[in-house]
Q: What sequence folds into this?
């Protein structure tokens, strides 16, 4: 029974465990109010399991102990911050690394770039972000084509037909990410299907056996995972060699090849971008269209902005910054869906929040899912309301949490671009309608995903009814 419970711990818990394993912290309790360990070996693991996810556990933790609270993961103390005020106080000089990338690489067993010094980390980060920016600039027409292809398919559906958002938008994300990351080889649907098979295995299994050793106990499961990872790495390495021989400079891997990164580092960065890029892009698009289907007023307001800014022209990269309301819709999608409910950073030097001292090498969790629905920060926090981002205070809070501005992770910036293209294409052609009685429950993992397939229906937009 315990094995089953541990097996049910969410993906995020495993990632937190991996960070703590890589960066052992002080065993000295911080003195911050919180839970005592319920088990000498596992700390508060069973409490997290009982709540169903780390996010739900953090919600209850902060409700009981306030905005600065502690708990135990194994034999190590963890500090969680659950309000904008406390996050603003938290000082961590480690702005050169991305917590998502660090945890993901640790679970994949990748060590390069995790201990090479600040200068190497900064250089590699700049190469990675520059590669994504150049990829978007060079391949924007391709992205637009892939979106128009999907919307054209939806336009051909009878109005009563149910459209599966998860299936279709994960497919769009996979096509977009693979072609923009690795090149035209992935115009072949067979290549995308093969890539998706390995992608799904890696994403579902990664770190799953970290706590209970379940992967080690199942030779067939372990073999399946290792085979998928090996095949994915081989594809990425072979693609890098192919692109280097062709001397093209149009997609993500090409930009990496122009840098001083090693072959291994290039493969690792391609793995992180393709794994994370697909999941974040897909779920941002899924939640955005789901929330739009629940509000005809928001759809119509977005339609009016698109008509005013774009007219009859397709969206372009230089026009995206002018789509302010579209940006508000995506910001509110991230907030309402709690797209990334948890972030984590290692306390590299002793810090202080309020009157509480945070010892060096303590893992500090940013309970973003708690903060994103904190009534003290957001009016009517459970309501989907893009208009809230017209207020400067909302935008500043959102930026502080790392969802906009310079601290936004590169994969999320990529996802925003794809989602903007999708919304600008869909909303000008179609109206989205939610299915009566359908509730899109959230599975709060590293990236919040609908628990089940999410369905909508679509109808052709009539100009007279739009204004």
A:
């Amino acid at each position: 029974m315990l094995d089953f419970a541990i097996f049910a711990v969410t993906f995020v818990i495993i990632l937190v465990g991996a960070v703590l394993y890589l960066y052992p912290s002080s065993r000295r309790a911080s003195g911050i109010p919180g839970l005592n360990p319920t088990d000498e070996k596992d700390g508060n693991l069973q409490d997290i399991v009982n709540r169903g996810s780390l996010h739900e556990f953090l919600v209850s933790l902060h409700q009981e102990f306030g905005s600065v609270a502690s708990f135990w993961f194994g034999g190590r103390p963890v500090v969680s911050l659950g309000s904008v005020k406390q996050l603003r106080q938290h000082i961590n000089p480690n702005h050169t690394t991305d917590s998502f990338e660090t945890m993901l690489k640790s679970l994949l067993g990748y060590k390069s770039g995790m201990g090479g010094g600040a200068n190497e980390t900064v250089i590699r980060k700049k190469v990675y972000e520059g590669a994504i920016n150049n990829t978007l600039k060079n391949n924007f027409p391709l992205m637009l084509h892939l979106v128009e292809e999907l919307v054209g398919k939806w336009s051909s559906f009878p109005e009563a037909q149910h459209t599966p958002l998860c299936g279709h938008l994960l497919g769009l994300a996979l096509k977009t990410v693979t072609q923009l990351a690795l090149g035209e080889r992935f115009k072949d649907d067979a290549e995308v299907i093969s890539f998706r098979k390995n992608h799904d295995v890696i994403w579902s299994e990664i770190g799953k056996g970290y706590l209970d050793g379940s992967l080690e106990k199942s030779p067939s499961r372990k073999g399946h995972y290792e085979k998928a990872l090996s095949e994915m790495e081989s594809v990425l390495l072979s693609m890098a060699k192919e692109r280097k021989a062709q001397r093209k400079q149009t997609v993500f891997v090409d930009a990496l090849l122009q840098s001083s990164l090693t072959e291994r580092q290039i493969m690792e960065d391609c793995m992180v971008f393709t794994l994370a890029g697909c999941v974040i892009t897909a779920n941002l698009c899924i939640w955005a269209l789901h929330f739009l289907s629940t509000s005809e007023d928001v759809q119509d307001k977005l339609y009016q902005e698109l008509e005013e800014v774009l007219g009859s022209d397709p969206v372009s990269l230089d026009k995206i910054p002018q789509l302010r309301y579209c940006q508000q819709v995506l910001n509110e999608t991230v907030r309402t869906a709690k797209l990334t409910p948890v972030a984590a950073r290692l306390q590299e030097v002793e810090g202080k929040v309020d009157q509480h001292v945070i010892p060096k090498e303590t893992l500090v969790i940013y309970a973003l899912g708690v903060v994103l629905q904190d009534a003290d920060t957001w009016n009517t926090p459970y309501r989907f309301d893009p208009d809230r981002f017209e207020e400067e205070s909302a935008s500043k809070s959102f930026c502080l949490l790392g969802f906009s501005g310079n601290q936004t992770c590169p994969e999320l910036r990529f996802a925003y671009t794809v989602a903007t293209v999708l919304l600008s294409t869909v909303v000008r052609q179609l109206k989205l309608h939610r299915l009566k009685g359908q509730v899109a429950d959230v599975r709060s993992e590293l990236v919040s995903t609908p628990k089940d397939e999410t369905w909508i229906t679509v109808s052709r937009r009539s100009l007279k009814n739009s204004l």
In short: The first strand starts at residue 68 and ends at 73. The longest helix spans residues 118-155. Residues 1-12, 20-29 have pLDDT under 50 and may be disordered. The chain is about 55% helix and 10% strand.
